[in-house]
Design a protein that fits this description.
The chain is an all-alpha fold. About 40% of the residues lie in helices and about 0% in strands.
């Protein structure tokens, strides 16, 4: 999992996930083109980014607005 995926998750969704929790999102990003187009995908992102605030604070900014759908970030 890379900080780029944590950054995208935080900026687009407002979800400040810890590295282990954001791994599900990174895996989804990697596999999304191989998934059925109309599949329902559920990602469990449980940990809070405050567990690793030092590295995250270097790269993450607050979103401009909340998202209405995950489709907005993919």
């Amino acid at each position: 999992m890379c900080i780029r995926d944590r950054k995208k998750l935080a900026e687009s969704c407002g979800l400040f996930a810890e590295p282990a929790g954001a791994t599900a999102f990174a895996g989804f990003i990697n596999a999304r083109n191989r998934l059925p187009r109309h599949a329902t995908i559920v990602l469990l992102i449980t940990g809070n980014g405050l567990k690793d605030i030092q590295s995250a604070s270097k790269k993450i900014r607050f979103p401009d607005r909340p998202i209405l759908s995950v489709k907005e970030i993919i």
